[in-house]
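Help needed: design a sequence for this.
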């Protein structure tokens, strides 16, 4: 069991009978009343994000997840296929289970798959990933007084704000947690 005082980002708990990962949490002390905890949770099975409030001191069942290395293979409709690198098994996840991670999947990408009692739930991406820009408007020198940005579409369909000097077919490094441009690769 885990108390509200031990909550932190990324911890997986069982909340209202569902497997949930904590995205954000905030401990709030209201004037005369008792303290409460506001949480933003992501349901690991459905991918839905919900906001919940509970009393400080409540306890939840902590869930431990297993991880194994996989390689992304291909997409078939709303199903994404991965191959376990140790057993060569085909693992299928839906678009809802992947959430925003689907915007970073490129062929033969090595990542970790997260399982609960041998049921695949979601994937854990590397912190930074190199993507190719497939389309961006040309940037012209002198358009801004300071360093400006422009939208660029990557090979996965993700749109990222990049500096003006980048053009189509350039490789960029993107932070997978924030979706922001990091540097030229």
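Sure. Designed sequence:
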């Amino acid at each position: 069991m885990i108390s509200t005082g031990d909550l932190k980002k990324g911890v997986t708990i069982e909340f209202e009978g569902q497997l949930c990962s904590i995205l954000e949490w905030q401990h709030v002390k209201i004037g005369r009343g008792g303290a409460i905890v506001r949480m933003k949770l992501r349901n690991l099975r459905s991918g839905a994000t919900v906001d919940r409030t509970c009393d400080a001191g409540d306890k939840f069942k902590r869930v431990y997840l297993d991880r194994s290395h996989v390689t992304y293979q291909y997409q078939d409709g709303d199903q994404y296929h991965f191959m376990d690198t140790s057993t060569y098994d085909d693992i299928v996840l839906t678009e809802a289970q992947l959430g925003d991670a689907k915007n970073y999947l490129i062929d033969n990408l090595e990542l970790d798959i997260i399982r609960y009692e041998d049921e695949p739930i979601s994937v854990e991406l590397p912190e930074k990933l190199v993507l190719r820009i497939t389309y961006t408007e040309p940037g012209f020198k002198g358009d801004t007084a300071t360093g400006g940005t422009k939208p660029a579409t990557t090979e996965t369909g993700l749109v990222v704000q990049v500096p003006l000097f980048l053009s189509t077919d350039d490789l960029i490094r993107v932070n997978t947690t924030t979706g922001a441009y990091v540097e030229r690769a």
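Residues 4 and 57 are 5 Å apart (CA to CA).
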